[in-house]
């Protein structure tokens, strides 16, 4: 439990979260301000949309056999990472503002670790997708020949690395014993860790952009050679369509996350004049918006995915109609009941031969 006493000289392991926030200059108000209400309301709205939309993507990939290929498994794993990001950010919304100073250090590290894990998982998934596309497109294939077992191993590896990255600060890379090295945005994190984490992610972005640039140059050159063969043209168009979808996902990821990573680096480098706290919350909401962009890209770029979305969304409606039609309970007017009785009498007299004629009169 956090107390206000030092356990060893130079270390502040028993100090409260409030102590570290005050020392780093990130003061948290004891009451809710208008800015806090705006951030929490906007953040929670984004979270619920993110959770719903990515559940839809995961359901579509599981439901439709057309998506049972390595590239879609990786895209599904990216949707799981986005779903986890939505849950993590929702957890953050319930532990922010005046609630922050009530957290223990352990709960604070859990809050930040969830966000770190979700971002790392998203970055690694995008890197895996880039490698998969490089492998298949340079062989002019639509889908990789990787086995389902290998894809599963890759996904497990991605989540293991993401979890470890989220736990690194808790395991020792913090500033509890180095108060002068505490971050301003994340007052219990070491500035050196923020620099390491930010540079690592920006480097990964750069690698992915380079890979996709090389793929586009290759596909453009190869497509000119295939223009005379109809079957190859169709394959080329399919490959290009999938490439555009994946590239849009990568582009939106870079646009949404780069501002947040930049101010993270500025904070880690100790830029006192950058006023990172003024933009921190808004850039974090922008980063979270990336997790709801991907399902939108799927629905606009992939007809099969869009059709599967509609089938899932209409499933409940169809079940409701089926229950109503099978219940046998109908409310009819007296005129309809009298007509039904006349038709029944006619069937008894003519052995049913006049049923069609009687029904046609109505």
From TrEMBL:
Organism of provenance: Cyclopterus lumpus
Membrane topology per record: Multi-pass membrane protein
GO molecular function: lysophosphatidic acid receptor activity
Domain called G-protein coupled receptors family 1 profile: residue spans: 53-298
Main location: membrane
Gene: lpar2b
Family matches, as PROSITE patterns: G_PROTEIN_RECEP_F1_1, G_PROTEIN_RECEP_F1_2
Protein name in UniProt: Lysophosphatidic acid receptor 2
Gene Ontology process terms (BP): angiogenesis; posterior lateral line development
Gene3D superfamilies: Rhodopsin 7-helix transmembrane proteins (1.20.1070.10)
Keywords: Cell membrane, Disulfide bond, Endosome, G-protein coupled receptor, Glycoprotein, Membrane, Receptor, Transducer, Transmembrane, Transmembrane helix
């Amino acid at each position: 439990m956090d107390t206000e006493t030092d356990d060893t000289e130079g270390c502040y392991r028993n100090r409260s979260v409030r102590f570290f926030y005050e020392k780093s200059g990130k003061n948290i108000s004891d009451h809710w301000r208008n800015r806090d209400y705006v951030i929490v309301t906007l953040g929670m709205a984004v979270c619920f949309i993110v959770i719903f939309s990515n559940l839809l993507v995961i359901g579509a990939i599981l439901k439709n056999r057309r998506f049972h290929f390595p590239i879609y498994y990786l895209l599904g794993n990216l949707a799981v990472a986005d779903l986890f990001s939505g849950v993590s950010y929702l957890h953050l919304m319930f532990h922010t503002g005046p609630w922050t100073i009530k957290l223990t250090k352990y709960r604070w590290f859990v809050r930040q670790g969830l966000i770190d894990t979700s971002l790392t998982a998203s970055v690694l998934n995008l890197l895996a997708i880039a490698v998969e596309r490089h492998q298949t497109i340079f062989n002019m294939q639509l889908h990789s020949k990787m086995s389902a077992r290998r894809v599963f191993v890759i996904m497990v590896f991605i989540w293991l690395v993401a979890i470890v990255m989220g736990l690194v600060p808790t395991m020792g890379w913090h500033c509890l014993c180095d108060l002068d090295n505490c971050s301003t945005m994340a007052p219990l994190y070491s500035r050196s860790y923020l620099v390491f984490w930010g540079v690592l992610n920006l480097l990964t972005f750069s690698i992915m952009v380079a890979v996709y640039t090389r793929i586009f140059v290759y596909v453009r050159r190869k497509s000119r050679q295939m223009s005379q063969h109809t079957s190859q043209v169709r394959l080329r168009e399919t490959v290009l369509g999938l490439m555009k979808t994946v590239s849009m996902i990568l582009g939106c990821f870079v646009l949404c996350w780069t501002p947040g990573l930049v101010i993270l680096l500025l904070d880690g480098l100790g830029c006192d004049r950058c006023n990172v706290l003024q933009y921190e919350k808004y850039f974090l909401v922008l980063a979270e918006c990336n997790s709801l962009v991907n399902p939108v890209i799927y629905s606009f770029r992939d007809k099969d995915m869009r059709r599967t979305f509609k089938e899932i969304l209409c499933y409940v409606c169809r079940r409701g109609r089926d229950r109503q039609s099978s219940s046998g309970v109908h409310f009819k007017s007296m005129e309809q009941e009298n007509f039904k009785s006349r038709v029944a009498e006619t069937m008894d007299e003519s052995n049913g031969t006049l049923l069609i004629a009687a029904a046609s009169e109505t």
